[in-house]
Amino acid sequence: MKKNIFIFLPDGVGLRNFAFTDFKNIGEKRGYAITYWNNTPFSIAEKIGFKEVKIENTSLHPLTTIYTRARKRMELNFFDKKFKETVYNTYNFPQSYQGIKNAAKSLMVDVFTTFGSNEKGITCVREKIKKLERTTTKYQDCKKQLEAHKPDFVFCTNQRPTQALAPVLAAQDLGIPTATFIFSWDNLPKATTLVETDYYFVWSEHMKEEVLLYCPYVNENQVFVTGTPQFESHFDKSLLLSKEAFFETYQLENNKKYICFSGDDIVTSPLDQYYLEDLALSVRDLNKKGYSLGIIYRKCPVDFTDRYEAILKKYQDVIVSIDPLWSPVGKSWNEIMPTKEDFALQSNICEHTEFVANIASSMVFDFVAHNKSCLFFDYEQPQLKKGIRDIGQNYNYIHFRSMPSKEAALWIRKKSDLTLTIKDILDGKSSSVVDGKKWFDKIVGMNPTKASVEIWDTIDFILKN
Fold first, then answer.
1. Assigned CATH topology for domain 4-60+136-227+450-464
2. pLDDT in tens, 96-119
3. Superkingdom of this entry's organism (predicted)?
């Protein structure tokens, strides 16, 4: 009889790695029956024809959001104390005190953070969250679904959503083995490991060390290095168009070389549009000197602002906007769903541009997979004023300390250096590829094309043992 695997999608971020890759096909070829346990608004059965069990109940205990917010702040406070740092608290977002309800919630979080930022306090809050979620109707509904479908294994595709709590707890209380995938390279130092499972699947040895450092309740034999399916598409040559076909599809000029500017969300880079403008000015300057350059602007899929519009219009002679092929099914950031077609689009942009320029983005890894450099802006804009976040904060984060050397990217510390640096990249005098690959290997792992296989190998191992 086939083993029944539930691929649990607490939100849309797991679709990219586990629904739009060969992940399902690999599992089925091994004899597994695969069901998507779907907590998202995206209908997997209707859209892509995969078997799914929908979680319709999205209710949380009224106090869960307070305790989960407190847990994150308590852990970050504790990390600062434990490791003698000040950087961990910069991962926090400001709380809102506007309105009675918001103020009451934020004050409760402040009290927990003030008095509970220690091992005992954090353990207490962790257990309280589980206790609260076990009392919800969502927990009971999920338990009934599990009892009806009897999965042999529940694989949670994202460790951070509160929506994952009740389903994972229901599975554990029924004795079903559970695992979670750490979905992003910066998640562990940010204290976003909210879901506690029997096993943890991580990208690399570096990330395994982080799990054991930041999650003391996890034992080494619970953590498996599998890689991530996120970058597999960059090594799939069948997705690539010829340069001529790509340029024709997006009405690009055949005589031009293009630079990719990958946009950031408004939190990471609130003045992002002005860095795009600086790049456009440098491109215009180089074009006057005999180069033939353009810019492909790829927006951040979860950026809902219109802050780039004036820049795109003003510099339409050099900027072409190619939007990601993501599909909104709601208004929040985790209801913007990736599509399978965007794998190919992103790979082709990486392949057919000269390099990428951005602020602190993981696109550095996408481009180095195509042997392309990454340029990081690291200077203040004149529009910076009190209340606007300085982008330099991004590079102080713990996850940026994983760089094997500063040469893993090309740094623009002063706006006046931008044009010359671009010229040096184009002329072959400057590159971040060699050290960028070392960074890629450290974060993504040594076998980026084998992640889906490694995950199924690990599930095989767990179920057999």
1. Rossmann fold (3.40.50)
2. 899 999 999 999 999 999 999 999
3. Bacteria
